[in-house]
Amino acid sequence: MPRPKQQRSSEAVSAMPSSVYSPVAHRLAEHTGRVFPLHVGDTWMAPFEGARMEDLREDELPGLHRYAATEGLPELREAVLEKVRRRNHPCELDQVLVTAGATSGLSCAVSALADPGEEVLILAPFWPLIRGIVTSHRAMPVEVPFYDRAFTVQEAIAALDARKTDRSVALYFSNPSNPVGRVLAPELIEAMAAWARANDLWLLSDEVYEDFVHRGEQVSTARFAPERTVSVYSFSKAYGMAGNRAGYLIAPSELREAIHKVSVHSAYHAPTAAQRAGLRALEAGGAWIANAAEQYASTGRSVAEILAVPPPEGSCFLFLDVSAILDDRGMIGLLEDCLEDGVLVAPGASAGSDYQDWIRLCYTVVPPEDALEAARLLAGRLSHS
């Protein structure tokens, strides 16, 4: 009997990293003692009572376990519309799409606007999954070193001009930033929007940390270029619902319809129960967000002080240059040393090729006292490596 042909994945998928957030996480099973998984972005807090899965009942919410409208539950889309109009920018109902998390929303958006071989500019350091998302759709991710070096309008535009080519079709960035924790000034957002219009590029504006601005002002990109902006939001970060996989985006009507087609052919729609939880969050989650924002800001300041770095302006992350303390083992050696203490951090290379000697940590994934303990352990490693 002839043997089957050797199976392999596509070149694009083969080029994607298999362990984005930590190349040593698989060794956790060998570790005895406490674990501080600071390499992932999440919150230790459960959603508020009334929006947890155990609070959703089929007898009160008929159809809870059935398919829903692929664009999102009508009442959720109406609530999203009201929230975005009040908080972010003008829009219409036909621009609203509920997605299976912000990750799926961004993936479907890239698929809808970029053909194979076309380029998506990505401000770096970046959210680690966006590079692989672009690659998976056979487009080309082009990294633009930015958050740690472009602080004026002139510097921002120069950074963009340096990487743009005739194949560029879109620009992605997060604000507040994952992983740098920087909040981009409104004048920078306005200038980048004008640059995108002048160069006929789409804007992928990742605003999932909009509720966690510790200093400065977060302004939605679509205020300046609504005709070319895809604004992406998430219930995961805003309300402690990361496992639910529900988010939403706002896009110009024709592009939103194209994104919807891709969404139907991938996730079909966001989980129905997750949408119900998201609706309750929009209706009654304000106090939860206020409490989380205050706690996150306090923890971020304390962790930054322990690590002797500037406090974050927003989001839930710190990004540290550790080049001065790396030994001949390089980054993997530092990650292994941290793992001995039960502390996992993400290597900076996952957020950009120019950041091989940096690390990212999330200070909200564990309770505040644990985040401070992990920071002290990390500080010890950084001072003795």
Topology:
Elements: H1 11-14, E1 36-37, H2 74-87, E2 96-99, H3 101-113, E3 119-124, H4 129-136, E4 140-145, H5 153-163, E5 168-174, H6 186-198, E6 202-206, E7 229-234, H7 235-239, E8 247-250, H8 253-264, H9 272-284, H10 286-307, E9 317-321, H11 330-340, E10 343-344, E11 346-347, E12 358-362, H12 368-384
Parallel strand pairs: 1-10, 3-4, 3-5, 5-6, 6-7
Antiparallel strand pairs: 2-8, 7-8, 9-12, 11-12
Helix pairs in contact: 2-9, 3-4, 3-8, 10-12
Feature tags:
Aspartate Aminotransferase, domain 1; globular; Aspartate Aminotransferase, domain 2; 385 residues; three-stranded antiparallel sheet; alpha/beta
In a nutshell, what does this entry contain?
By secondary structure, the chain is of the alpha/beta class.
Q: How many strands, which pairing sense, and closed or not: the largest β-sheet?
A: 7 strands, mixed
How would you classify the helix and strand content by structural class?
Answer: alpha/beta
CA distance, first residue to last residue: 58 Å
- DSSP helix fraction: 25-40%
Strand arrangement in the largest pleated sheet: 2-8-7-6-5-3-4
**How many structural domains can be distinguished in the coordinates?**
2
Could you name the CATH class of the largest domain?
Answer: Alpha Beta
* Strand elements, count: 12
CATH fold call of the largest domain:
Aspartate Aminotransferase, domain 2
Radius of gyration: 21 Å
How does the overall form come out from the CA principal axes?
globular
Fourth-level CATH superfamily of the largest domain? Type I PLP-dependent aspartate aminotransferase-like (Major domain)
**Can you write the helix and strand succession as a string?**
HEHEHEHEHEHEEHEHHHEHEEEH
Overall pLDDT score: 94
